[in-house]
Predict the structure.
Amino acid sequence: MAEPAQAIEAKESILSINNIEVVYDDVILVLRGISLEVPKGEIVTLLGPNGAGKSTTLKAVSGLLQTEDGEVTKGSIHFKGESIGNRAPDEIVRRGIFQVMEGRRIIEDMNVIENLRLGAYTRRDKGIKDDIEKVFHYFPRLRERRTGLAGYLSGGEQQMLAIGRAVMARPEMILLDEPSMGLSPLLVKEVFNIIRSINQEQGITMLLVEQNANMALHCASYGYVMESGKIALDGTGEELLNNEDMKEFYLSGGDKDRKSFKNLKSYKRRKRWM
């Protein structure tokens, strides 16, 4: 269950995004001054339609914008009080942030254990074997298939492997991009239960981009809704689940008849202050 807003605000923020703009290829403005806070040890979700800028927000944090000719041109991103805007992805990983990309991005011609070891490439300690066992604790299916090639895993197992690889980095924060994509409803529930367990048991902060708003808001303590590169709405998971506009636009089923927050008078009033 989501916590009261006062409790969220009282917690120390591990990630602060302040009024950032992101431009691709020097001309395409994708993010238009968004700001958000992620409290330490919490799960925060970022919702919105395709093209709203959710994945771009994650890439702005992880440094992966650089691989797509993108750049944060305005505003700031701070992790644990230090500026990380436009830093290289490997430096971001060493600072304690790991992104699980949309589409899993596992190495198909490597086996499960080799993929997990890849997640620990920045580490120099002797605890890697123990952490592989920890991943197998959360994902027993991966133990059964530990020597099999990752390319032969099911979609759900590949998603588990991608999350397990992130855990292997011993991050303080994981960025999850569409973990439910392409999974059956039963597998979606299983994956989200494991995400919640990792958060609670390991204390890993998570910023979650997700199309399944209902599942995400039941998992997260706080949520932000994006429209056209801006934050249109935010609140605790419970507040957003009970919000009438959210029920109409994001919690009523598929995308077919989904409307836009742009049509709301409240959004138009707020837009003047963005």
In short: The chain has one domain: 5-271. Residues 5-271 form a domain with the Rossmann fold fold (CATH 3.40.50.300). The first helix runs from residue 5 to 10. The CA atoms of residues 43 and 206 lie 5 Å apart.
